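Worked example 3 (structure in, sequence out).
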């Protein structure tokens, strides 16, 4: 073997790294060739097949699941040095610890390593957040006033630990929308983990690490595109798992049985439905609560701001209709209907409001096209 390149980071960055590699084999191709049985014919002389010439072997993040545990424990001897193949260049993306340690020990002199270079917070990004936030998330000026000082700590290049922020408040008041907005200033897809989904027996393996090929929190962290990480509904995960995040919040390092992931200088946002900091500390427990850099409560949205949000949502959704559909329903009363409903005290959840406006516009279009009739919509 002549060259080994190991990349830790996003799949998109790894794809750019290998974009000039014209032809290559996958680990599946190699294992299939190694495992292929040689048919012996009685009385015939033995035939020794020449080794498969592999100029480039590329192993992606998801490919390690196709390698058996026995092969992982001695991957260099079991696969790369197998006499049935001859590998020239090896490209690895996010190898698990056991895999990486074996390769590092066997080929110490031909390895080069790289990591994804994700954008960090600077003054220009902070100015963009300050100037645009109120146009995107309506009715939460207090959030911006508390958010900006917390984020400013990352402008200092000497700071290594992440900023960890706990958002409090009811559903549909702008918590997730705020995280998405912050990420939009950095670029790249935000890593969003729905902790409400981690309620089964599989949650332990997801958070602490299972078999090397199984999906895990650490593997999603290491292949993230952005340094903005959203742990949605953080209050829904079993509190027994919170100790897995102590080192991550304190030092910017998340470790499980397969990976050690650097999250220094990240913005880690955890959302919850707690009404106050006191309630959050009581339910989450002081050990994890005390590790948050900032706790920010989202206010209940006023009627005036709900009217603004409804108007904004309507305008955005109407603009997304085709020109033909817009002309068909240009005299619709959808917006006025929802504005009146808000004035009468309906709609606490703004996410529900947006979905209902979209549904109402679609119904108007379907009626105008004769697909829905008054009989079809009767009783709604």
């Amino acid at each position: 073997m002549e060259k080994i390149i190991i990349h830790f980071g996003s799949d998109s960055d790894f794809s750019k790294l290998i974009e000039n590699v014209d032809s290559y084999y996958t680990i599946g191709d190699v294992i299939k060739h190694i495992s292929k049985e040689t048919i012996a014919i009685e009385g015939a002389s033995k035939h020794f097949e020449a080794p498969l010439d592999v100029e480039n072997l590329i192993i992606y993040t998801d490919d390690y699941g196709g390698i058996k545990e026995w092969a992982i424990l001695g991957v260099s001897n079991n696969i790369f040095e197998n006499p049935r193949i001859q590998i020239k260049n090896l490209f690895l993306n996010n190898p698990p610890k056991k895999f990486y340690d074996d390769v590092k020990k066997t080929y110490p002199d031909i390895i080069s390593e790289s990591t994804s270079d994700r954008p960090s917070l600077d003054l220009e990004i902070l100015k963009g957040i300050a100037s645009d936030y109120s146009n995107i998330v309506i009715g939460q000026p207090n959030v911006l006033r508390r958010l900006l000082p917390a984020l400013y700590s990352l402008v200092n290049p000497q700071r290594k630990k992440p900023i960890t922020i706990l958002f409090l408040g009811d559903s549909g008041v702008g918590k997730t929308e705020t995280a998405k907005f912050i990420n939009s200033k950095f670029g790249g897809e935000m890593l969003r983990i729905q902790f409400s989904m981690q309620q089964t027996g599989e949650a332990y393996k997801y958070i602490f690490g299972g078999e090397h090929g199984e999906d895990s929190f650490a593997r999603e962290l290491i292949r993230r595109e952005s340094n903005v990480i959203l742990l949605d509904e953080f209050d829904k995960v079993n509190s027994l798992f919170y100790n897995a995040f102590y080192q991550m919040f304190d030092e910017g390092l998340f470790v499980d049985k397969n990976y050690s992931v650097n999250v220094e200088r990240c913005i880690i946002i955890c959302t919850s439905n707690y009404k106050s900091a006191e309630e959050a500390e009581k339910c989450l427990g002081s050990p994890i609560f005390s590790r948050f850099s900032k706790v920010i409560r989202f206010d209940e949205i006023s009627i005036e701001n709900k009217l603004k949000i409804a108007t904004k949502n309507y305008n955005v959704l109407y603009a997304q209709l085709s020109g033909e559909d817009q002309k068909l329903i240009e005299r619709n009363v959808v917006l006025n209907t929802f504005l009146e409903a808000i004035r009468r005290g309906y709609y606490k959840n703004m996410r529900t409001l947006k979905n209902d406006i979209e549904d109402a516009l679609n119904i108007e279009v379907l009626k105008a096209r004769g697909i829905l009739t008054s009989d079809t919509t009767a009783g709604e």
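Notes: The chain is about 40% helix and 15% strand. The longest helix spans residues 350-368.
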